[in-house]
């Protein structure tokens, strides 16, 4: 019976965990989408290059989304179990608090190991590949250098000083 309860609580946490990983990752990816769209539209990078950059970007924010998603999943699962009075039913059936919390610790250990692997091994590899692909994208070849955009502050200062010179010379 303990195995059945462990599986049930684990499933209660797994669904919110997966959904929150997807939602948090998509939210963080939306913050970087403007840079990727600029590469795609103005500098001629192809869809394959953009997809490669997105894939190599994902581990950089998985370091943060995995623990945050675990926290969200535990909160959602405990809230649901508490609101349906399932904790009371489990305690009334004779299960100890240790048996009820065992799936939470099991999932915490799994998420800890996954986050540690991503942080120590996957993230450095993906960061290296991101920089390699970003610098090697078709928009950055020597035949077609990146267009230089004038700085707004510098162009404003230059135009205002040239206007001052014109006003001074006309008087």
Description:
The protein is mainly α. 83% of the residues lie in helices and 0% in strands. The protein contains 5 helices and no strands. Helix 1 runs parallel beside helix 4 (97-135) and helix 2 runs antiparallel to helix 4 (97-135). The longest helix has 40 residues, at 2-41. The radius of gyration is 27 Å and the shape is elongated.
In short:
This protein is an all-alpha fold and 171 residues long. The protein has helices at 2-41, 47-83, 86-92, 97-135, 152-170.
Give a quick set of tags describing it.
single chain; mainly alpha; elongated; 171 residues
Topology:
Layout: H1 2-41, H2 47-83, H3 86-92, H4 97-135, H5 152-170
Helix pairs in contact: 1-2, 1-4, 2-4
């Amino acid at each position: 019976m303990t195995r059945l309860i462990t599986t049930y609580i684990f499933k209660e946490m797994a669904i919110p965990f997966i959904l929150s990983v997807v939602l948090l990752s998509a939210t963080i990816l939306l913050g970087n989408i403007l840079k990727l769209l600029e590469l795609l539209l103005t500098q001629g990078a192809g869809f394959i290059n953009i997809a490669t950059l997105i894939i190599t970007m994902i581990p950089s924010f998985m370091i943060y989304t995995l623990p945050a998603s675990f926290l969200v999943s535990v909160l959602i699962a405990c809230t649901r179990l508490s609101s349906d009075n399932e904790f009371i039913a489990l305690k009334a059936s004779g299960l100890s608090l240790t048996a009820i919390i065992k799936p939470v610790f099991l999932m915490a250990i799994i998420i800890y190991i996954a986050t540690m692997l991503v942080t120590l091994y996957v993230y450095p590899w993906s960061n290296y590949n991101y920089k390699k692909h970003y610098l090697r994208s078709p928009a950055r070849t020597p035949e077609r250098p990146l267009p230089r955009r004038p700085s707004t502050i510098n162009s404003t200062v230059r135009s205002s000083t040239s206007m001052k010179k014109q006003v001074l010379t006309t008087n």
